[in-house]
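Dear Dr. H.,

I hope your travels went smoothly. While you were away I took the liberty of generating a structure for the chain from your last submission, since the lab meeting agenda had it listed for discussion. I wanted you to have the full record in hand beforehand rather than looking at slides cold. The sequence, exactly as received, is reproduced here:
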Amino acid sequence: MPLAVAAILAFAPVSGCGSSTSAPRTGAAVPTSRTPLLPPPGTVLLTGAVRQPSQITVDQLHQMPLHTVEVSFQNDKGTEHHTEVGVPLAQLIPSSGLATRDKKSDLLSFAILGVGADGYQAAVSYGEISPDFANKDVLVAITEDGKPLNRPRLVVPGDVKGGRYVINLTELHVSRLTPA
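The corresponding predicted structure, in token form, is as follows:
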């Protein structure tokens, strides 16, 4: 079972275990559709190549040092401008929390995939957020323009378009990138 699925299942309540569907006698795989397991609103799962998978709640985010960033980006209607308040991603996922190996600058082999409640996904490399490298102020925002968000939002200041902004954030999945 992939680590990400195991980590998500560890947080999911167990109900209705088992299945009435059996595989064909030929041994062919039965196609399945996976319904994403959504944490409660205001909760973000931290999964993947981390030392300790966990859940982060909005209440916990409010207890951490918050940063404010002014952002602007292009969309189909023009330019949007916002004031975002949240916790820097590098603070939520410090390099000590990554499942690193004893190799020079190993943390540069990691990426973080933000996943929204609707399945939308966007990635940020760990080098972008690391204080030792690009040190970008990528946030998990909890307010926008002074209004609380229903679910946290991944905010990537400096992007020309808002494509890596993930609204209704439900998961931060850390992956080690390796050549195929």
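Two observations you may find useful: Strands lie at 43-48, 54-57, 67-75, 78-88, 110-116, 121-125, 139-144, 147-155, 169-176. The longest helix spans residues 3-11.

With kind regards,
E. W.
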